Amino acid sequence: MILFGVEWKVYLLTATILGGAVLLALLAHYIIFLALKRGADRTGNVVDDSFVTHARRPTSILLPLTVILSILPSLKVPIGLLEGMRHTVALGMIATVAWLAISLTAVFDDFISSKFKIDVSDNLLARRVHTRTRLIRRIAIIAILIVAVSAMIMTFPSMRHIGISLFASAGVAGLIAGMAARPMLANIIAGLQIAMTETIRIDDVVVLEGEWGRIEEIGATNVVVRLWDLRHLVVPLSYFIERPFENWTHKTADILGSVLLYTDYNVPVEEVRVELYRILLASEMWDGKVWSLQVTNATERTMELRALMSAPDSATAWNLRCYIREKLIWFLQERYPQSLPRIRAEFQEKPQG
User: Fold this and answer.
1) Choosing a second label site near 103 at 20 to 30 A (CA), which of 80, 114, 188, 295?
2) Does domain 255-339 have CATH number 3.20.20.70?
3) Other Cβ atoms closer than 10 A to 7
4) Which of 311, 206, 324 shows the shortest CA–CA distance to 254?
5) Where does 199-247 sit in CATH, by number?
């Protein structure tokens, strides 16, 4: 059987050579990464282990493609088929190299995560570094994808020369594309601003749209906020540039919490103040920095007491506030029940006329 002027035996031999080369490359890849895995287990280094984990899959394709590209010139096949095979392998190598580059950004992210722990009480520096690293990594991934796609397109000779008709419509097409991409570009630029100015960081406690939550993820175009009730609020990055919001952990993680109590006018304020201090001393949630009890308001019916206390972070402050509120109410119920809010009324008997 003759195909393109070449006997079928030649194609069978070519397929056998290529198949054997791929199998040998895969075997070599398995042996190399088996040795790297054992070395990483011995060293216990996070970077070594992360490299083996993330680089294994892209290199399992890149190595066979490299071997195929090296043996293509020795194959006795028609020049047109040979060029097509070389072009296909080149496209695969470009895509795989981009995949490997993206995987290496994950290795860098793992290294930063190992050096800067977020799950500690004083994690301001760690949150700052994590935020910058993840934003820069996402921008780098976008850049890698753009370069890879551009390189793949440039391998097609017909794509290098754009026709006159395309140039004539380039103005309108560019205007439409620019208008469509404007929100995405605005968010990417906002991400760069956030990375530099540190308006928000990973694990920051924020209040926006009337909702309290933590910054869980900062993406290339949006931010995921985990709300107090475990819902997730997805907000564009540009929101944090254009609109005001509260950041409770912008400088430090510690925060002040307050509890408001409404009592009768006969409440012994000094006794309540002493009890507050006693409760705080017995609680591990109080960081020992700030506390006070003040009369902050008085109406015709009740007197407002504000208990102020500090905590190492917002989550602890919330629990401490609930704890103090519960204990002070119990204290008033047990010791001074007459000091609880009450409504006074005066009845006058209408004179007999």
Assistant:
1) 188
2) no
3) 11
4) 311
5) 2.30.30.60
